């Protein structure tokens, strides 16, 4: 199974598309980012694990509900654990814990930050926070996913 560890701020919404949602209580997802994510899922048969800080205020069912507004709820299978306040709170530690607990081998990380990716940096598709997940990053993500299959 291919897994996408997905950030939201800077990836699914970004500085060039930061719109208060009329569908839910947060920011709208950029239509380009949504279409690129759907294309990535179609090309790689991937599932989503939310690694965004949005997961901190939501449960898995809430995340599925949020993604249902974009036709993606059936692809959301998990959220990473929250290690905030612990000694090593880097996002890569939270992602690695999810990988270890669920025996995930095929994965990529889509995030706008790279400073806390540590040993997972080679699996990172690094989005620019002003343009989010776009066609250029989509092509990179597809190639990276195929590299790990």
Task: Give an overview of the whole structure.
The protein has 149 residues and is of the alpha/beta class. Helices cover 32% and strands 15% of the residues. The chain has 4 helices and 5 strands, in the order βαβαβαββα. A 5-stranded parallel beta sheet has the order 3-2-1-4-5. β1 (2-6), α1 and β2 (46-50) form a beta-alpha-beta unit. The mean pLDDT is 90.
Helix and strand pattern? EHEHEHEEH
Biggest sheet character: 5 strands, parallel
Number of helices: 4
As laid out across the biggest beta sheet, the strand order is 3-2-1-4-5
Into which percent range does the helicity of residues fall? 25-40%
Q: Please tell me how large the radius of gyration is.
A: 14 Å
Give the N-to-C terminal Cα separation.
10 Å
Write down the overall geometry. Answer: globular
Strand content: 15-25%
By DSSP, the count of extended strands is 5
Unreliable sequence segments: none
Which structural class should the secondary elements be placed in?
alpha/beta
Features:
single chain; 149 residues; alpha/beta; five-stranded parallel β-sheet; 4 helices; 5 strands; 32% helix; 15% strand
What is the secondary structure topology, with strand pairs?
Layout: E1 2-6, H1 31-44, E2 46-50, H2 60-68, E3 76-79, H3 91-102, E4 106-111, E5 124-126, H4 135-147
Parallel strand pairs: 1-2, 1-4, 2-3, 4-5
Helix pairs in contact: 1-4
């Amino acid at each position: 199974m291919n897994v996408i560890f997905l950030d939201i701020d800077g990836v699914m919404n970004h500085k060039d598309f930061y719109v208060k949602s009329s569908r839910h209580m947060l920011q709208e997802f950029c239509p380009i980012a949504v279409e690129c994510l759907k294309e990535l899922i179609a090309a790689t048969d991937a599932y989503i694990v939310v690694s965004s800080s949005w997961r901190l205020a939501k449960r898995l069912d809430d995340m599925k509900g949020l993604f249902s507004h974009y036709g993606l709820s059936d692809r959301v299978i998990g959220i990473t654990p929250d290690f905030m306040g612990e000694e090593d709170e880097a996002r890569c530690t939270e992602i690695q814990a999810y990988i270890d607990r669920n025996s995930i081998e095929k994965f990529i990380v889509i995030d706008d930050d790279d400073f806390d990716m540590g040993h997972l940096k080679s699996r990172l598709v690094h989005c620019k926070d002003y343009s989010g997940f776009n066609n250029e990053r989509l092509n990179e993500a597809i190639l990276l996913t195929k590299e790990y299959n």
